[in-house]
Amino acid sequence: MSAAEEKPKVRWGALALFVGALALALLGAALDFATPRASPAMADRAGAASVIGLAGALIAALGAWLMRLALARKERRGGPS
Amino acid sequence: MIAIALNPGFVMMAGALLLLGAPQTLRAPIMVAAAIGALGLLLSPDFGRYDAFAQIGLQMVPLNLDELSQVFGLAFIGATILIALYGGARDRRFEDAAILLLAGAATAALFVGDLVSFVAAAALAGLAAAWIVFCVDDERAQRAGARLLLWQGLEGLLLLAGVAFQLSDGLRNEFGQMDARSIGGALFLGGLAIRVGAPLAHVWLKDVVSNASSTGATALAIFPAMIGVYGLARAFPGEPALVYGALGMIVIGSAFACAESDLRRAAAYSLLAQIGLAIAAIGFGAPMAVAGAAAHAFALCFAYGLIFMALGALLRRFGTTDAAGIAGAARAAPLTTFFLMLGGLSAAATPGLAGYASYAVLHDALGRQEWLVLALLAPTTIALTAAHTACRPVLAALRAPPVGAGARQAVPAFAMLLGMVLAAFLCLVVGLAPDWLYGLTPPPVRFAPFTPGRLGAVWALIGAAGASFIALRALRLTPPERPLRLLDMDALYRGPLAGAGRWAGVVLLRLYGVWQSTSAAFAHAAGEAFTSFARGGDRPYGDKLAAAASFAAVAGLLAIIFATAY
Asked: Is B303 helix (H, G, I), strand (E, B) or coil?
């Protein structure tokens, strides 16, 4: 099978992961909002957790760009010392 | 039932000696048998100190059993069995012996009750770790092993000096709470900081893990650093300096894990960040926080053990663990990819897996203190782990392979799959029924992790992080996967410092050469002059001037003698 034929399946795999993660986030939010609490701590609520999760993903992407820009070095022939 | 009071690590070390002469078919069974024997020794006696004796005026305690050593010991013995099964198919006698020696020395370090024995066991574990790296027949690995020896030597020196100062202050040899403000305590803390990979000393872990074999990397990821975590939990609970060091570990580990292209190096950085979380809890020092730290170390052994096993299987198949190099792995090695994802999800504290059982306690304990930074740190670390350790490798494996690329190596051996299945099973068992783990922690905690509120927040956290990261990847807002090498602390001593050292060596050699040639020329000239003078003395009348000089010298000498004598 050629690479061109494989491409759509690869996209489906990533899409399935995305849908799974999104469903997990929504399920968490629904469960949290359905749970009454006497003294809710903000950091423990699903809304705050979702914001932290989103921020974490952004940091992961932005941090990777910045780290690579600042610290990447080219491979030399024969490998590093 | 007869209770034998013997340090469980000794059985594994004896097993390592046995492995050196055992045929290939018997090595994995011997490793498993040694681990099971150690488990029996761990579980049979009651808690307490056994067989203490005096040696050169110091109280030595070869076996000290309590909750803290027990929970770490169970993790180490379980990991040894996993590694024995995982590496059972390959024929590498010395590496097998080195791995069992590392596991045995690490386990022995947990159960000794005095400082000198702890330092000795930790040093033996360091030597065994270097031996594992040296077993790889590759120049890079040999250099990485030498660098590890340097780190371990520095660490051993600090630990030993710390113990010496501790004893000279009149304190006991007992391995217990130490004061980081005393010289001995500070030196000991410095040694343990190197062992856990504190900032500036964090490079050794990714260095050795990325240069070791599949099985060796798994052992190196689990045992050496966890000895340090145990040592900190034993000697420095409640030490505020640990919190700052842990913050640095989390930031550095997470940042490099996001950017590294090699997945084994990225996993090593991710492990550093997670260890930082446990150390922050130890630094906080509340009983529940220390219990959470011990539980987290326990869970990390199996979660990251599974990750490194899966990456090792990919290394065997594709010849690389670079994110760009494993494209197509999801189709070519679906089971291995599944285990890689499971390990990543476990590390990211997905409910039902081992990481969640410990993370829930840690999060609760860190949320109870006044530092808002620490309260936010735990969920942020988990979100980052979900992105870079759970999602990123799987997305890399899901990419289409390059045109014409086929399976380059053999499929993972059955033994490798068996090890991964067992590791995944343990992750699930700990995650689904964590009460027995909570009963083992020091002190035992009563905790309900599966309340709707806790589950909802963690699901939202992991789901949002994963979905956002996948969306960012789809929008090409994350950097493309390509092989690269990032500069870290080691670039300093492997680059400019190593160059400066080489330059200084050359300059010193040249100065020595100049000194040698100058002194030789001077000696030659002096010899020539003396020879010439002596020849002049041999022929006093050969040269009028020389004869006059000789006469004057003798006359002067006689005049001095007469003047002083009379």
From this structure: helix
Contact at CB, A73 and B498, closer than 8 angstroms: no
- DSSP character string of B4-43: P---HHHHHHHHHHHHTTS-HHHHHHHHHHHHHHHHHHHH
Q: Mean pLDDT over all residues of chain B?
A: 90
pLDDT digits (tens, 9 = 90+) for B469-498: 999 998 888 888 888 888 888 777 777 777
Residues B298-333 as b or e (16 or more Cβ within 10 Å = b): bbbbbbbbbbbbbbbbbbbbbebbbbbbbbbbbbbb
Residues 59-78 of A with CB under 8 A from B: 59-61, 63-65, 67-68, 71-75
Residue to test with chain B: of A7, A9, A67, A69, most B Cβ within 10 A: A67
Question: How many alpha carbons lie under 13 Å from residue B205 in its C-beta half-sphere?
Answer: 35
By C-alpha distance, the chain B residue nearest A46 is: B457
Least confident of A22-26, B154-158, B273-277: A22-26
Distance from CA of B214 to the nearest CA of A (A): 20
Beta bridge partners of residue B322, listed in sequence order: B262
- Residues B189, B124: Cα–Cα separation, whole Å: 19
- Distance of alpha carbon B59 from alpha carbon B167, whole angstroms: 11
**Which ranges in B433-495 belong to alpha helices (H)?**
435-440, 452-474, 489-494
Q: State the smallest CA–CA distance between residue A81 and chain B in angstroms.
A: 7
How far is the C-alpha of B126 from the C-alpha of B149, rounded, in Å? 7
pLDDT in tens, A11-23: 788 888 899 999 9
Helix (H) or strand (E) holding B265: helix B263-284
Place of tokens 């890399």: B396
Q: How confident is the model at residue B543 (pLDDT cuts 50, 70, 90)?
A: low
Query: Helix B240-259 and helix B372-385: axis angle, to 10°?
Result: 30
- How many residues are recorded in chain A? 81
Do residues A58 and B465 make contact, with C-beta atoms less than 8 angstroms apart? no
For A44, the closest chain B residue by CA position comes to: B457
**Are the Cβ atoms of B457 and A46 closer than 8 angstroms?**
yes
- Model-level pTM greater than 0.90? no
- Would you call B53 helix, strand, or coil by DSSP? strand
Chain A (25-64) residues lying within 8 Å, Cβ to Cβ, of chain B:
25-35, 37, 41, 43-61, 63-64
Which DSSP helix (H) or strand (E) runs through B63?
strand B63-65
Q: Taking CB atoms and an 8 Å cut-off, how many pairs form between chains A and B?
A: 222
Kindly determine whether residue B472 and residue A58, on different chains, have CB atoms separated by under 8 Å. yes
Interface test with A, best of B356, B461, B473, B490 (most A CBs within 10 A): B461
Token match 């084994």: residue?
B264
| In contact, A18 and B351? CB cutoff 8 Å | no
CB contact under 8 A, B466 and A17: yes
Length of chain B: 566
Strand, coil or helix: B484: coil
Alpha-carbon distance B357 to B299, whole Å? 8
What is the interface pTM, i.e. ipTM, of the complex?
Answer: 0.81
Give yes or no for B330 touching A (CB within 8 A): yes
